[in-house]
């Protein structure tokens, strides 16, 4: 079951679901979602001399990515074909019986700004800001202003609570994200590994 505005408000009031801060309930609480605003930090991907990025190399990933913080009153210009990581301004806490989906807003989609290249799922138990995968599929640069409503979060109730929510003993490398976080796929090994055994 997807939570309605009334359900969301109730869960926020109960305190187990957190979206913080919400400065304007009327603006941010939508009929079945919460609008989230854009933070001011971005990770941009540099041209690199490395022939390719090995996802399991922390050094190569770090070399590829640089951080930009937009000054107050300025915009971040997302050029056609760009892919950058942004962050929500709000911090969220998802309880063990809910899963949240980050969706784009239609108004930005109509300007060819896509908020999620791939991922968009916030696990039960997840806490932190949400890293946004922003791209411009259009032909004109688009100005993104920190504080603008950039994405929306919907919540689906699980049939039963997650037994091992995000942040418990399993991989939880993005728990308590503060600002945009580059891929930490290289930590997969630490949490059990994704590598197939050789026969
Ligand atoms: O667009 C997104 C999607 C998810 N998350 C956060 C919340 C989510 O709970 C966590 C992990 O997401 P996911 O499980 O999709 O990533 P993973 O690469 O499988 O990480 P892990 O191995 O830690 O589960 O990252 C974001 O910040 N942005």
Automatic annotation (TrEMBL):
Recorded superkingdom: Archaea
InterPro entries: dCTP_deaminase, dUTPase-like_sf, dUTPase_trimeric
Comp. bias intervals (Basic and acidic residues): 160-176
Reaction equations catalysed: dCTP + H2O + H(+) = dUTP + NH4(+)
Cross-referenced SUPFAM superfamilies: dUTPase-like
Residue segments, region Disordered: 160-199
Amino-acid positions noted as binding dCTP in the UniProt annotation, renumbered to this chain: 105-110, 123, 131-133, 152, 166, 173, 177
Sample GO molecular function, one term: dCTP deaminase activity
GO biological process: dUMP biosynthetic process; dUTP biosynthetic process; nucleobase-containing small molecule interconversion
Annotated active site: 133
Matching Pfam families: DCD
Record keyword Acyltransferase present: no
E.C. numbers: 3.5.4.13
Keyword vocabulary terms for this entry: Hydrolase, Nucleotide metabolism, Nucleotide-binding
Gene3D superfamilies from the UniProt entry: 2.70.40.10
Functional pathway: Pyrimidine metabolism; dUMP biosynthesis; dUMP from dCTP (dUTP route): step 1/2
Subunit structure: Homotrimer.
Function: Catalyzes the deamination of dCTP to dUTP.
Family under the similarity heading: Belongs to the dCTP deaminase family.
Protein name: dCTP deaminase
Species lineage: Archaea, Methanobacteriati, Methanobacteriota, Stenosarchaea group, Halobacteria
Gene, per the UniProt record: dcd
């Amino acid at each position: 079951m997807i939570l309605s505005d009334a359900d969301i408000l109730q869960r926020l009031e109960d305190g187990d679901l957190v979206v913080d801060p919400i400065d304007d309930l009327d603006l941010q609480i939508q009929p079945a979602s919460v609008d989230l605003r854009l933070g001011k930090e971005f990770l941009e991907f540099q041209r690199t001399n490395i022939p390719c990025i090995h996802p399991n190399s922390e050094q190569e990933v770090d070399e590829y990515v640089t951080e930009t913080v937009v000054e107050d009153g300025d915009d971040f210009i997302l050029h056609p074909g760009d892919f950058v990581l942004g962050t929500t301004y709000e911090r969220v806490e998802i309880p063990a019986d809910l899963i949240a989906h980050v969706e784009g807003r239609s108004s930005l989609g109509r300007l060819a700004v896509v908020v999620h290249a791939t991922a968009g799922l916030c696990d039960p138990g997840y806490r932190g800001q949400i890293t946004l995968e922003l791209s411009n599929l259009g032909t004109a640069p688009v100005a993104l202003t920190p504080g603008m409503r950039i994405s929306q979060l919907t919540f689906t109730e699980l049939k039963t609570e997650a037994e091992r929510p995000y942040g418990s003993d399993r991989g939880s490398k993005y728990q308590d994200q503060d600002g945009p976080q580059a891929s930490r796929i290289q930590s997969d090994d630490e949490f059990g590994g994704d590598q197939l055994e050789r026969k």
